[in-house]
Amino acid sequence: MCSKWRYIMKKAKRSVTTTVCVIVALCVCYLIFCGIIGKKKFFPNTSINGIDVSNMTVKEAAAAVEDQFATEYNNAGIDVTLEGKTYCIAIEEALDLDVIDAVQQANDESHGFLTRGFNFIKALFGEAEYTARPSLKDKKPLYTAIEQSGLTKLEGVEDSSYTVKDDKVIVTKGRGGYTVDSDKLADEIASCISKGEYDAQLECPLTYSDVDLDLVYDQIYVAPADATLDPENDYSVTDSVVGISFDKDAARKKLDAAADGEEVSFDLVYTEPELSKETLQAYLFRDTLGSFSTNVGGTDARKGNVAKAAENCNGTILMPGEEFSFNNVVGQRTIENGFQAAPSYVNGESVDEVGGGICQVSSTLYDACLYANLEIAERHCHPHPSTYVDAGFDATVSWGGPDYRFINNTDYPLKVTASYSGGVVSCAIYGTKLKDFRVSLSSELVATYDYDTEYEDDDTLEKGEEEVSVTGITGTKYQTYRTVYDGNGEVISSEPESVSVYDKRDKVVLRGTKEKEDTSEENSTEEKKTEEKTTEEKTTEDTTEKKDDKKDDSKKDDKKSDKKSDNKKKNDTKTDD
């Protein structure tokens, strides 16, 4: 019995040994087989991305699939949706598009040393299909692609982040704005690339923040607005606007103290405008702030120019802070614009120029503005005092040269009226006088400049004869003042207004150079006539000089001039006098 048992055990051991030896032999043979196969070429019946690469090397297979690889992945993108819209994230810059690397990866997958023998046999009796796809080369280009898609520019407040009810703003803690979570989105795209899921459609991940009170405030805030005039709609009166706001600091404290998801409310603040439509309509151009008139002389052409300039100024409206420019309002003085040739100053002499005479309108308007207590921005005096206003209260203008400008420094719109009728030009400023005031203007002669006498030879006059060809004018310097009184006659302000310097004009006397006839009787007669003529001319000259001096020294009270642009008018300038 024992010997039989020993026999069985011995036989079993011999069988196990044989089995083990067979297995070991098979394994050795398999390993030798795997080694013989190698990994240089793909197996029979093998395809990559649907292209047959049987018995090809990696390089040969890469060349075979290169065109298809480039076509499929060079413009690869992954779709991302947000709020019902789809955005394509271009990912080609993040991919390793080296086709050899992708094919080598497929080769490595099928040619593992311990599996290549099995895969070879499997390929002999079937088909082996592999996918070559690019790997993620660099994650940074994904952030650039996300930004270029426009997703990062999308941010906002959820519709339910706040509501307005019963004059209150109601917000919910933790339900505020959102922004795109670029980090999370880049990770999800990278995961799709590694899995080869290029057809995936991702939902854009968002980062939510608490309610942005500044953003809510900007959406609710309405600035209070006074009624005003609309220049684009024939200066019609606009409606006033009630302001809407809330206390952001108080609201922020309440929101910070609230629990997540808790509703917080705070009161709206309404601000009434300072000037309603009804008030503006009642105050608009209610008062005459200042007016002035002057008598117009000269030729019909000069009077026509005065009328035309007044017509162009009439009806001009200035909003608070706006500036009036005489040159801009009246326009260029041309025949086409309705002006005529009339006397004006050029190089100190009176000559005919198109638009001559319109300085009388600018001077009259200047005085009206002074009485309206307006701010003068630019004003120039003539080379010599004008006859239609007192010295120091004229305002010369010329196209392309000196201008007359003033500013509406009141709180309400102003209207300029100007007209010519019956030899008189009148200007007025209409506005709103909130407090009663009165303006007094005065002037002071502060200096005089004597003229010189020049002598010129004249061969049409006999020796000993003299004739005045240019009457001398004494130069003068005037200081004007503006004094403002309140309704009770108390002085509010008294300030120097402007300095006006008027040029002197030298006297020119012609002396005769013509020889007298050589007859004693005739000489005696001629000498007597010459003496009589000289006596008469001197008498006339003295009379003329006295009149000119009297005219040049004249001045009036209650006048004013511009302290901002007080410029002397030189003889070598041109004015539309």
As laid out across the biggest beta sheet, the strand order is 19-27-26-20
| Mean of pLDDT | 81
What is Rg? 51 Å
Percentage beta strand: 25-35%
Apparent shape = elongated
User: Helical residue percent?
Assistant: 25-40%
Number of domains: 3
Total strands: 35
- Separate helix tally: 13
Describe this structure in words.
The structure is a single chain. The chain is an alpha+beta fold. The chain folds into three domains: 46-151, no CATH class; 155-281, no CATH class; 285-575, no CATH class. The chain contains 13 helices and 35 strands. The protein has a four-stranded antiparallel β-sheet. A four-stranded mixed β-sheet has the order 21-25-24-34. The longest helix is centred in the first third of the chain and has 36 residues, at 2-37. The radius of gyration is 51 Å and the shape is elongated. Residues 533-573 have low confidence and may be disordered.
Summarize the structure in short.
This protein is α+β, with helices and mostly antiparallel strands and 577 residues long.
What are the defining features of this structure?
single chain; 577 residues; alpha+beta; 4-stranded antiparallel sheet; 4-stranded mixed sheet; 13 helices; 32% helix; elongated
Task: Describe the secondary-structure layout.
Elements: H1 2-37, E1 46-48, E2 51-52, H2 58-73, E3 77-82, E4 85-90, E5 95-96, H3 99-110, H4 116-125, E6 128-130, E7 135-136, H5 140-148, E8 156-157, E9 162-165, E10 168-172, E11 177-180, H6 182-195, E12 201-203, E13 206-208, H7 213-220, E14 229-230, E15 236-237, E16 243-245, H8 248-257, E17 263-267, E18 269-271, H9 277-283, E19 287-295, H10 300-313, E20 316-318, E21 323-325, H11 326-330, E22 341-346, E23 349-354, H12 359-371, E24 375-380, E25 405-407, E26 414-421, E27 424-431, E28 437-449, E29 453-462, E30 466-470, E31 475-486, E32 491-502, E33 507-514, H13 520-552, E34 566-567, E35 574-575
Parallel strand pairs: 1-6, 3-12, 24-34, 29-33
Antiparallel strand pairs: 1-2, 3-4, 5-7, 8-11, 9-10, 10-17, 11-13, 14-15, 16-18, 19-27, 20-26, 21-25, 22-23, 22-35, 24-25, 26-27, 28-31, 30-33, 31-32
